[in-house]
Specification:
The protein has 5 helices and 2 strands; from the N terminus they run ααααββα. The chain is mainly α. It has a two-stranded antiparallel ribbon with strand order 1-2. Helix 1 packs parallel to helix 4 and helix 3 crosses helix 4. The longest helix has 45 residues. The chain is flat, with a radius of gyration of 31 Å. The N and C termini lie far apart (97 Å).
């Protein structure tokens, strides 16, 4: 994040097959900062070039979105840490700071994630129930195979004796 920006690179024609050198540095900084202008500066390009590449190249667009998601995940983890551990703030006239907790923001964050957490749990439970149902079906099929004798094929003559 505090690294010096990479030297300016030659312009790269957007849409060509070659992957420009600036891309890895740009995406890494975007993941770290969630800031396009800072990421472009770090990569030695203009923000306009980054946006142009994003519009022109679906693969770069996906990588951009992944970097932003990673950045927001890191931001969320930092916020969660602050909300869980509190912040030490200097008290007026005191030699030591006082640990404070932002309960209002903690409750807002919990409310915002309640739905996504419930959705994720439902997906996990659904996977578990599908596995259970598959195992039950397999056991029932094995029981059928063991208990039922082989049935003759449809239309096969089941009468072994000839009455004529």
């Amino acid at each position: 994040m505090a690294d010096a920006p990479l030297p300016c690179r030659r312009a790269h024609a957007v849409g060509t097959d070659a992957v420009p050198e600036w891309r890895a540095a740009f995406l890494a900084e975007l993941a770290a900062t969630s800031n396009v202008a800072a990421s472009a500066r770090h990569a030695g390009i203009s923000p306009a070039l980054a946006y142009q590449a994003r519009r022109a190249e679906p693969g770069f667009y996906r990588e951009w979105q992944e970097a932003l998601c990673e950045g927001y995940d890191m931001l969320e983890m930092a916020l969660l840490r602050r909300l869980r551990e509190g912040e030490v703030k200097p008290a007026a006239g005191a030699k030591k700071g006082v640990r404070t907790f932002d309960n209002a923001n903690a409750l807002r964050l919990l409310a915002a994630h309640r739905e996504s957490t419930a959705r994720q749990r439902a997906v996990m439970e659904n996977r578990d129930s599908d596995a259970i149902l598959d195992a039950i079906d397999a056991k029932i099929e094995k029981m059928r195979e063991r208990s039922l004798p082989a049935l003759p094929a449809p239309g096969a003559d089941t009468d072994q004796t000839d009455d004529q």
